[in-house]
Amino acid sequence: METADERRARLVGVARDLIARDGVANCTFRRLAAAAGTSTRPFTHAFGTRDNLLREVALSTWDGSPLDVEADGDVVAALTTIGEHWLPLDDERYLAERIYFEIVLFALTRPALREELMAYSTTANSRIAALITMGQKAGQIRADVPAEELTMAFWALQAGMAFTGLYETDALPPEMARRVWRDGVARLVRP
Q1: What percentage of the chain reaches a pLDDT higher than 90?
Q2: Dist CA 93 CA 114 (whole Å)
Q3: What is the pLDDT of residues 108-155, one digit of tens each?
Q4: Cα separation, 50 vs 112, whole angstroms
């Protein structure tokens, strides 16, 4: 028998597949029920609202993220690893990043969903800022720019690279993206 957590994970998977195929605008409980071969009840019971389901789908793309990676003396390497996780460097990450971006853009018109997703971004920002501050104290990260500013520059670089990797797949193949990312992080943060 399927547990509630297993059911939620399965339903999130159905939603991810539907969004990947038809887009977030077409991710309705009725379409999800048809894709799952069930009524809408399992979706409404597990998530209540479409926005709650979309939040869970977006957050599922963070699974396995290295946000808690230890710096082990090399803060630049830790930052590089963290940001690289969200680059579309293989088919799985490409799909996850595309779904995440699509939900984030959709959330711009949904204040409650946007606020919930921003809470996770704030957590990620805090982690990056803490690593940058640690690196600044150790002389590994430039100290002439505040940690908060470097944090936003880090994520702007990462999001730009991720979007470019999604949109310009032929112009920015994975190996080039990896090299450009690593070089970009080093140029951004090294003293």
Answers
A1: 93
A2: 22
A3: 999 999 999 999 999 999 999 999 999 999 999 999 999 999 999 999
A4: 12
Phi and psi of 162, rounded to 5°? Answer: -65, -45
3-class SS of residue 93: helix
pLDDT of amino acid 70: 85
pTM: 0.90
> 176, 179, 131: which is closest to 155 by C-alpha?
131
| 4-7, Cβ contacts within 8 angstroms, sequence gap of 24 or more | 4/46, 7/42, 7/46
Token match 């597990």: residue?
46
Q: Who wins on pLDDT, 68 or 132? A: 132
Which residues make Cβ contacts (< 8 Å) with residue 164, sequence separation at least 6? Answer: 171, 172, 177
Do the Cβ atoms of 61 and 121 come closer than 8 Å?
Answer: no
Short-list 110, 107, 97, CA closest to 163: 97
Range list of H helices, the chain: 4-22, 29-36, 41-47, 50-60, 75-85, 91-107, 111-137, 147-167, 174-189
